[in-house]
């Protein structure tokens, strides 16, 4: 019987255990996404969001739900998801780059564990701030729909803040468990699970919009075809790489001779993957939620209301800021993970050299190659991320459908699936089984 990659996945005990563990943890996460926090009337809350219609508040709710998998509109215990953790990570990574003392401390023995502790403490602080904004947002809903809040005042505020903060930290812990004992990057898998969970309802809503005459059938079909084309472009872009040849000279250690071999350094077209998209979205989520939740008709609240309207996820300012942030984080994350200085140092210390490049020019050459790769890669990410929003503005596509079936969701889905497939492929090869392709998932050389 011919080897089948899917069958092989369940033949290998280690891989089978990882897969089942990942699926079980994701099921637990989805269960927590439908558990409403205490003090909320879930029926009246659902009715409020059903009757919300269009506008900035509807776009805000759809945007927050995009990363929480529908948990935000339910006011569930996991309504903030992993976004506070990602926001804190961004702040600390920027601090490590800006302050050399912090970077030196992080590189010392035990430094990474210390940074992880700071990240978790900072996540709790961010969660408490965002959960307080959630209570203000819930209070504004209760004024529009009396009876939404079963509890009120400080009792609801305390319960909601503690519950939502605990829920976010549990979500981070769930992500860590998937990374350590399951398949794929846990945080990315949680975001992907939230997106996948909402796709069926988005397709159903699209069918209802076509049936009601709100969306033209021909345009809906063309939009779906466009999304499949985008998936193809993303897969093509993710598999492309630039191979930098490296030759290692022969050297004698004791009585043995080492080296004399040629290899290469693989630089992807988009070295940072989908991280710039996730980072840019998390970076915008925090101020957007604060502005929307604390907006009012007087004083400072009026200014926050103006900020909330300006940062409408379907507005021009948001699109421009998102594009700039994607490009920035593409450069920033690549410099953190693929430091040309460190790569050049390792090549020199192991007696290696790049053919045609002087040894003292290795770092400069690697930096030039990375710059040439990052710019088109980041522009491609930005274009794919904002193109559906432009189409939504032009053809009045529903926000929830545009958000879920748009470029950002497709980039995250395809990127996470490809990374997960690569891990599965490596485990199958390690256990002497064929992977998804007989020759493996070979990237294209550019």
Task: Write up what this structure looks like.
It is a single chain. The protein is mainly α. It is built from 18 helices and 6 strands. The strands form 2 sheets. Strands 1, 4, 5 and 6 form a 4-stranded mixed beta sheet that branches. Strands 2-3 form a two-stranded antiparallel ribbon. Strand 2 and strand 3 form a beta hairpin. The longest helix has 34 residues, at 111-144. The chain is globular. The two termini are 37 Å apart.
* Secondary structural class: mainly alpha
In terms of DSSP E residues, the strand content is 5-15%
The tally of helices reads 18
What is the count of β-strands? 6
Low-confidence segments, ≥5 residues, pLDDT <50? none
Report, as a whole number of angstroms, the end-to-end distance.
Answer: 37 Å
Compressed to H and E, one letter per element, the order equals HHHHHHHHHHHEEEEHHHHEHHHE
Mean pLDDT: 77
- Broad shape: globular
Portion of residues within helices: over 70%
